[in-house]
Protein: BH3-interacting domain death agonist
Amino acid sequence: VLAVFGAEVNEEVIRLIAAQLAEIGDQFDKEIKARVVNDLVQHFLNENLSGEEITRRMSEAVEGLARAIPSDMEREKAMLVLAMVLTKKIANTMPSLLQRVFRTTVNYISQQLHNYVARMVSAVRQ
Structure:
């Protein structure tokens, strides 16, 4: 986060955001079916898939899960938390994939949710 938003981002701001997202993540964790995780694990294990293709598969999974989220939550927030929960579940299922899934998740968040994360950080700082 600091690399993206500069050193002016206070650690307390990051802690507040992380706590909020973790709480939501705990709720989402129970909703994500093993099949979704296992399908993504198989994609990550496929050495022939490019980083772009893996990111697209992650995006499709997140968007599919986000459609089931109650409409009272910001879609971007739901997608951010779902991406992080999926990352955790994939790494727990197949620890050897941690580096690849983490890199993919960072790429996904950077491509799809960068503006949302920037708005969230600036809102907490104010």
